[in-house]
Amino acid sequence: QLQIVESGGGLVQPGGSLRLSCAASGGSLHYHAIGWFRQVPGKEREGVSCVISSNGDTYYGNSVKGRFTISRDNAKDTVYLQMNSLKPEDTAVYYCKAGDSYRGQGTQVTVSS
Fold it and tell me: What is the pLDDT confidence band of residue 31, given thresholds at 50, 70 and 90?
């Protein structure tokens, strides 16, 4: 069964950058649309970005457009989320989701001075 593992979260100052990684075991990410979403306790889950498996098209939430970039490394079977110009409101647990069925445990991103 496909298992998703996110990594790369941490504490960063406002304006800084982080790169999140989404990798899999027990299967491949290659044929799945991969999405990143984030969750803050007490708030609704927010879709951040996704990349479509068939054509590589990418989509971004309005709050992250121009600052975040999603990409695939097919050789490493990994999907990345490059996050630049981070803001305190980006603080959340970030989850990677493969298709409709698989998601990881999340990685905490904290943006604070």
Answer: confident
